[in-house]
Automatic annotation (TrEMBL):
Transferase among keywords: yes
Keywords from the named record: Transferase
Alphabetized Gene3D superfamilies for the sequence: 3.40.630.30
Organism in which the protein naturally occurs: Phreatobacter stygius
Pfam families documented for this protein: Acetyltransf_3
SUPFAM superfamilies membership: Acyl-CoA N-acyltransferases (Nat)
Keyword Transferase on entry: yes
Protein name per UniProt: GNAT family N-acetyltransferase
Entry-linked PANTHER family: GNAT FAMILY, PUTATIVE (AFU_ORTHOLOGUE AFUA_3G00765)-RELATED-RELATED
Length: 215
């Protein structure tokens, strides 16, 4: 992963400020902040019930307006989302990111467009977000959760080195009810061991931090 620091205009409360939003680069992907011109493409990829029903907050149907609302609030509070885009042609693949609560561990999340499932993109993107959190934030551990009926997400979480820490309930916006979830945690010490171990499989998407200019 290469972290390219970019200065973007941050929108909020009618005041325009500057803030630094990282752009994360992996072997095949560029993870960057969503922009308003992405709204139509986001709606085109996200508007699928099979994606929404596995996430806590994704609306369904998902309209361009939903994407615009999401983009307006991105990086303003606890939510720190990235679009997952192709390094080759910039095409939208999905989204990932983390929630950074005032108290407690950051939590990662992700979704990938149906056409791109099964190619390792979610794992590659999630690993980049994990590396970013441990390298550039003081997080002692990172949380993740998946619906118990979501083995693909569970597998992604496990491939990132997370360990199961318990079960719980999460509110599903689509189902308008609480659904059972498995909760996972990745401690900094475990992550450090994984990185130091240099397993050849992990190394395929292992990060290399380079600070550079974007565009
Ligand atoms: C979960 C999701 C992000 C996975 O994206 P992806 O890019 O296909 O994930 P990856 O290819 O990196 O890895 C998926 C893994 O799950 C495995 N998998 C997929 N379907 C599975 C199933 N039904 N049972 C068991 N394992 C499954 C794949 O084989 C792969 O593991 P492997 O590399 O060991 O073979 C994608 O399916 C998605 O967006 N789902 C809807 C939204 C969602 O679930 N978000 C997460 C909320 S917690």
């Amino acid at each position: 992963m290469t972290a390219l620091e970019t200065i973007l205009e941050c929108r909020g409360s009618g005041v325009t400020t500057e803030c630094s939003i990282p752009v994360l680069e992996t072997e095949r992907l560029v993870l960057r902040a969503p922009r308003f011109e992405d709204a139509r493409a986001i709606a085109g990829v996200a508007n699928d019930r099979r994606i929404a029903e596995m996430t806590a907050n994704l609306p369904h149907p998902y309209a361009e307006k939903d994407a615009e609302n999401w983009i307006t609030n991105a990086w303003q509070g606890e939510d720190h989302p990235f679009l997952i885009t192709s390094k080759t042609d910039g095409a939208l693949i999905g989204a990932t990111g983390f929630v950074m609560p005032e108290i407690g561990d950051p939590e990662i999340g992700y979704w990938v467009g149906i056409a791109h499932w099964g190619k390792g993109y979610a794992t590659e993107a999630a690993r980049a977000v994990v590396d970013h959190l441990f390298m550039n934030h003081a997080a002692k551990s990172i949380a993740a959760r998946a619906r118990v009926v979501n083995p693909a997400s569970r597998r992604v979480i496990e491939k990132c080195g997370f360990q199961w820490v318990g079960a719980g309930l999460t509110r599903s916006r689509l189902l308008a009810s609480s659904v059972p979830v498995d909760k996972f945690q990745l401690d900094r010490s475990v992550w450090s061991s994984l990185k130091a171990w240099r397993d050849p499989i992990l190394r395929r998407s292992a990060p290399k931090i380079v600070i550079g200019e974007l565009g």
